[in-house]
Amino acid sequence: MRTAVVVFPGSNCDRDARDAILDMGLGPVDMVWHSEDGFPEAPDLVLLPGGFSYGDYLRSGALAARSNIMRAVRAHAMSGGLVLGICNGFQILTEARLLPGALLPNSNLRFICSPCHIRVERNNTPFTRSFPERQVVQFPIAHHEGLFFLPPDELDELEERHQVVFRYADPVTREAGAPHAPNGALNGIAGIISREGNVLGLMPHPERATLKYLIRGTDGRGLWQSLGEHFGAFNVSPGREDVR
Amino acid sequence: MNYRDAGLSDAEYERIKEMLGRTPNDLETALIGVMWSEHCSYKSTRRLLSQFPQSGRSVVQGPGENAGVVDCGGGWGLAFKVESHNHPSAVAPYQGAATGVGGIIRDILAMGARPAASMDGLFLGPPDSLKSANLAEGIVEGIAGYGNAVGVPTIGGKTFYDPCFEGNPLVNAFNCGFVRLDSIVSSRTAHPGHLAVLLGSKTGRDGIAGASFASKELDEDSRESRPQIQIGDPFEEKLLIECCLDLRDRGLIESMQDMGAAGILSSSSEIAHKSGVGMEIFCDRIPLRERMEPWEIFLSESQERMLLIVTPEKLDEVMGIAGRYELECVAVGAIIEGDRYRVLEHDVVIADLPVQILGSAPMIEWPAAAPADAAARRAPRPDMRSLDPAGDLLELLGSPAGRERREIWEQYDCQVQLHTAEEPGYPVSAVCLPDTDGLVLFAMEGEPWKCRADPFSGAAETMAQSLRVLALSGAEPLGMTNCLNFPSPEDPENFHVLSECVKGLATVCRDMGCPVVSGNVSLYNETPRGGIYPVPLVVTAGLVSHCAYYVSCGRAREGDAVCLVGPAAGSLGASRWQVICGGAGSSEPLGDVWAYDPNMEHAFAERAIATSRRACVRGGRVIAGGGLAVALAKSAIFCGLGMEVDLGELGGSGLTEVLFSEGGPRAVYAVQPECLDKFLSIWDGYPVARIGTVRGDTLKFGDVFELPVSELRYAFTEGDRLLRS
């Protein structure tokens, strides 16, 4: 599985995403600077990492969505390639109109860094196939603009098309929805997928729940596991369980 | 410019004329004035600071560089430093705190290290005061706004509240970073023929003469000091970090210095001074945001700038890399033979000084006199007795200085860079070492109340406490950095208190083999209402060779033995209980503070380390603020289990002392039943007692009181929010 991690000025989870993927034994990973015209080698997965691209100036993700490399990202998505946007990457995907909706400031108007429980609403995607259906997992959040918003009719359409992949949930009752959203996200939406099922954006950080011996668990491994299985990558390179 | 406006005294000005053999021109007067300010020269404290032990097994770089560096194994160095940003934060809380974070990050970067983690010591006025609450909110948002965007996790810190900080909050910003030992960048390696290159933001009028601003008391007019406040841009800083590390990896930097206090002037003259060379700066080549006078350009503290020293043949490559990061990069000066520091404007020399003079402010020995009431403040108070132990425990847990500060640290990204090994809110902060299974731990401590009651013992207790916390967690000390926050040294009583505090820190560091590798002094922390309590804040770094040895404070299981190590009681003087619950009939910190005993500290540390290595405990917690009662209550809250404690076996001391006294090397452990014998044998020769069992869902103190863990947790997490409603 070859991954291209796009690095915008101000991205700060780019190295983390690379380290998580390498820890799973899912290399190689190319780091691609935003001003490039294309990828050094054709990637299986394009990853837009978290951070503060362009300092979040103007609006989170707005400037990054118009940077040079995004033409190649769009072409990759249009041809059915997988694209994963995490946190600021999700914001960029909505600004680039590769995913619907917008991420507004959290309802408490503050940055929130916290462990966070989400329910896997669909496990028939390349990103979630190794999770049991409706499993509640813990991926940490760290954002100031995470309130997922869509006008009511479009929101209904999104739900009807089963585009919601992750929803904020209660770890005990396993109920999911708006009351469990730490940021006021409509319908408790934490992550959505494109109609074609190849572009996923989510606010929580799977890469922050991947390495062992750190705080906040390893539930994120399931997402990388899914991608590895989708690309048949584990036949070549088994997960290195012994490495932190 | 009048020399007095430049902050120079009559005697200093005479000295300058004598050293120069002439009268300095206005620009020269301004340059010397700021370099001789307290903030840049440490003229009041240099002699005191020489008491600190600076060498040790692990020390790679001691004081004198942008930050200290210690060897943490595997070929890696740990650069770390704490620095105050008190005065700016009092006037413009968001920008003051934000640029404090940005400044300390650049200090670490200047060593060639990738900034890896931040911590913050905040000493604030009471949260029920509107003014203090507003300042606190701005400060926290500033730290979050800058630290989160720049991609450096904020992994912990300390928050303390007292009315003396109203109007003069303390913001002490800590940062650390990892650097390969063979890639450390120094400010001593500039040679004639090298170029001085300015990388980063354009220079503007913000923060002009901030160093002088930080060298006097805050007064009613301090709001007019706003032009002296710097404005931060974390986006630019993030690019600066990546660019400097890229340049370092390519071997393009000979030397590097961040631009903090006194901007271009101090960074360039320090490199010249430390490298033993001369320097010429071409004033007209410096990229400006607005039209500025030369003295303004040299004193500007515009943020996100670094001074690089590069060889002429590598300049093009350096500029190419900077362009890739969209950073401005201009050669603004040259290293020359000799000892002259020259400023040129359109090829005309407008200032010409010996490098030496800028770095040689005459020391000032302020007169010292023990405060008239010093003996009375620290006299033992026999009249301290809790009338309602259960109520007092809940009050301590819920007090501003005692309760959980989740609403603060939830605003900080604590996880970016994927190496944070402990949640914020714990007594230690932990980062995984690169490439190995080791951990680096940090303990940040500051005890304003104890230092007020007894400066020597209070400071000694502060330092000893940081070492105990590390030892209990399984860490051997690597080194310490400190920030000395005090009122004006010109008052003899203040200077005496400052001297005693430094002596207290230095004594413990020497005895316990903990070198001091960096630090910062912030004086003149006063408002018209008076000075702050003395706050020598320390951050001690320690190494746990394998993460399996790490002893966390939140672990216990039903049936574990609860053991107390150390004497049954410490001291109630200036304790949380005495001040918060009004013991001794006063909310002023009063009474005798624990008297530091090096033998006992050694005995504790050895056994605590052995306990960690032999893996015979589930968890442990050093007894600190609030005493045994709060230590057990927090243990119960963190592990979510109750405890039955029998105080009968403690004997001797009074109940209030046993419950709430603080100080001394004391701790509680949760010990697996099958390991109890091994544990007791490790602690043989030191006071140790099994005082109870982990059981049920209440904290039961013999027949004194019994409180549900849920009620303790409610007080701890909601605390003064209840008072506010």
Give an overview of the whole structure.
The complex is a heterodimer of chains A (244) and B (725). With 244 residues, chain A is an alpha/beta fold. Chain A has helices at 14-23, 70-78, 88-95, 152-160, 221-230; strands spanning 3-7, 29-33, 45-48, 82-86, 102-104, 112-114, 117-120, 136-138, 141-143, 147-149, 164-168, 189-193, 199-202. Chain A has a single domain (3-230), classed as Class I glutamine amidotransferase (GATase) domain (Rossmann fold). Chain A has a nine-stranded mixed sheet with strand order 2-1-3-4-13-12-11-7-8, sandwiched between helices. A two-stranded antiparallel ribbon of chain A has the order 5-10. Chain A is globular and about 45 Å long. Chain B has a domain at 551-725: PurM-like C-terminal domain (Phosphoribosyl-aminoimidazole Synthetase, Chain A, domain 2). In chain B, the strands form five sheets. Chain B has a seven-stranded mixed sheet with strand order 8-10-7-11-9-12-13. Chain B has a seven-stranded mixed sheet with strand order 22-24-21-25-23-26-27, sandwiched between helices. In chain B, helix 7 (130-150) packs parallel to helix 9 (234-249). The relative contact order of chain B is 0.13. Classes of the chains: A alpha/beta (244), B alpha+beta (725). The A-B interface holds A 9-10, 12-13, 15-16, 19-20, 33, 35, 50-52, 54-57, 110-114, 140, 142, 144, 205, 207-208, 210-211, 213-216, 244 and B 141, 144-145, 148-151, 233-236, 238-239, 324-326, 409-423, 432, 437, 547.
